[in-house]
Amino acid sequence: MSVSRTLHDIVGDLVAVAELQLDAALSLNPTALQEATAARQDLAFEISLAEDHERASAHGDPALVDLLHQLNEIDGRCMHVLEVGLGVIEGIRPHSEASATYRPDGRFKGPHA
After folding, report:
1. CA 111, CA 113: separation in Å to the nearest integer?
2. Which of 35, 66, 72, 103 is deepest in the core (most CB within 10 A)?
3. What is the pTM of this model?
4. Tens digits of per-residue pLDDT, 46-82?
5. What are the start-end ranges of the H helices in 1-113?
6. How far is CA 51 from CA 39, 58, 113, in A?
7. What does the alpha-carbon distance between residue 98 and residue 5 come to, in Å, rounded to a whole number?
């Protein structure tokens, strides 16, 4: 016998997983970030399976609205952390020089090309 979860429970879990994503981003842990993202995709799929009438009846539910606001805030913080992290990585990454081995068309340079 399967027990279906309420939309409120699923969104609550979504908030918890979003917090895991934020923690992973802050700690620069790509494995944990990938795991949390996969779990979040599973929860999004679970929401998509919720009955239309349940989604419609949840519209305007103050507790659900509060959870969605929390989720939006966490997502914004996570995106900011990831953007800053990417900027730092791009700033310290050596810029690539033109290849001494390959031409722009991908063929080898040199006398034997």
Report:
1. 6
2. 35
3. 0.72
4. 888 887 767 777 777 899 999 999 999 999 999 999 9
5. 7-26, 30-49, 52-58, 62-92
6. 21, 11, 63
7. 56
